[in-house]
Amino acid sequence: MTDRSEGDIQRVHRTTAALLSAVNSSDRDAVLAVWCDDGVLMPPHRRSVRGRSEIAEYFGRLFEQRRFRFDFTASQIEVDRDMAIERVEYTASAWPAKGGAEVRDAGKGVHVYRRQADGSWKLAMDIWNSDWPA
User: Terminus-to-terminus CA distance in the chain, angstroms?
Assistant: First the structure.
């Protein structure tokens, strides 16, 4: 692995950490900051969410209704030129924003990152699903 790949892996890790922090603090603007303008979010049991305005609307609605605590328990990143793929395993908790019962989950997902002109990495695609039966 080259020094560039090692540095790129660390930059992708930082983007992932920023995403987790943003989701866990219900900060829609911080979530948007890690996404490419043409990104695609593929949540379970829902249609794909395409582009910055749909992603903003999705997270705005989501954070009005719920609070979250996500932890990535495993992460494996591979970089190939201007694309990076991260396989994650997660644990999560969600609860109503106005209080209520907590729901827990565990699962796995894939993030696809794209290198930006300034050398930073932004999320281009995100898909995940639960390991637990519905």
Answer: 40
Of the candidates 38, 67, 65, the one whose C-alpha atom is nearest the C-alpha of residue 51 is: 38
> Which uninterrupted H or E stretch holds 7?
helix 3-24
pLDDT digits (tens, 9 = 90+) for 51-110: 999 999 999 999 999 999 999 999 999 999 999 999 999 999 999 999 999 999 999 999
Compute the distance between CA of residue 47 and CA of residue 62 in angstroms, rounded to an integer.
Answer: 15
CA distance 28 to 111: 18
Looking at residue 1, what is its pLDDT? 44
CA proximity to 122, closest of 25, 45, 31, 22: 31
**Can you tell me the distance from the alpha carbon of 94 to that of 44, in angstroms, rounded to the nearest whole number?**
15
Domain that holds residue 16: 3-130
Tokens of 36: 């490419």
- For residues 122-128, give the mean pLDDT: 98
100-105: long-range contacts, CB 8 A cutoff, minimum separation 24: 105/130, 105/132
Distance of CA 111 to the CA centre of its chain: 7
Q: CATH number of the domain at 47, please.
A: 3.10.450.50
